[in-house]
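Why does residue order matter? Because the sequence determines the fold. Keep that principle in mind as you read this record.
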Amino acid sequence: MKNFTVKLPQKNISKIAAVLALAVLANIVLLAGSVAGAPGPNQLIQGAVNAAQPAIVAAPGAQTSGTITIYSSLPRTGSSKDQTITLENAMQMALDDFTNGTGKIGNFTINYQKLDDASAALGQWDPAVEKANADKAVADPDAMVYLGTYNSGASKISIPILNAANMVMISPAATYPGLTKAVAGVTEGNEPAVYYPNGPRNFFRVVVTDDLQGPADVSYAVSAANAKRFYVIDDSQSYGKGLADAFSNEVRARGLAVLGRTSINGRESDYRALARQIRDLNPDFIFFGGIAQQQPGKLLADLRAVGITAPFMGGDGLNNPAFVKEAGVAGEGAFSSISGVPVDKLPAKGQDFLKRYQAKYGAPSNYTIYAYEAMTVALTAIQKVNAKDRAAILSAVAATKDFDGVTGKWSFDQNGDTTLSDFAVYQIQDGNLVYRTQTKPRS
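Structure:
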């Protein structure tokens, strides 16, 4: 398809966020769920989905009227704020679509509450705040669903708290594999069992996991840059380490060389010494696993300052306006991948969703439609159970199969992960984020 180019002004982060999100709107499809409720202009197919899934029976005596609360826990403080707002907008839009603006499902009023899991002290997600959010949801007798988290490290904290209370959790963004499955060379030995003290799985996600993204990124590096000698860096967080591990493992599996592997913590004053070490190894490709809040832009600037010209790539953590701003001119040519497909691969209803979001809220971010889908899956489960019963709603989400979303049909697999697996590659060029191509793991 034609490259879609959007100018990214450097004056302030909110403007950059909006413009980058417009590029995402025009080029990337993230997943989305189907809209339910009474027929309307934005009605999507749901009958086939319901027919394909087993009936879920609530416990005897469960309330069949009143209020059901859905919490979201996302980073509303720090550089992720603008992106988080687009996720919350999408969740609200999904609720409005599903209920045709009434906010009601059967005899229940749906109460959507937004929680911030970040702190000003850290400038990003905060473990203590995330724990408090999960505890708050568990203590609320009306709370049936927890939407989040954005960061995989935050999910590690909240999953077991919610699991002990049989509360379902649906993430629009957390991609670390160990939250749902064991992957050799990537996850810890006690994962994922350590997150599920109550037994049954309660965590689901509508995004593709890093054990698929890492190999997909290697596929791109090999095909586009003919790369053979790699240096791999991570940001010391669960997401970044997992993605970097998956990337490194795939490089070795192809008989190629990982010249070095190191971690940064995002608090270093500069990376010149590391950059000189990498320069001496002479890699032909550098990969970074991590988020924009951990200084990948400063890292890249220091790599370029010592004369390194090798391509630089990251995952969806770098498909972020904060990275573009921090890297500045050094970011020219940098690549990032994110799950999804270009807009011309969408069915008509998917394109319609993006147009309606743009008209109502303005430009989306790269996770906007994932957030829409997460809420829609939750509402579909609530409608199916038609009772205030956490365990039954959890079972209904787990039974999601052949969900007719804006990208076609998908299911949750036995681990709670989506069955979709496409990725798109972007490149920063002349201050713009440009869609390049699709990439996949080796089959």
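The first helix runs from residue 13 to 27.
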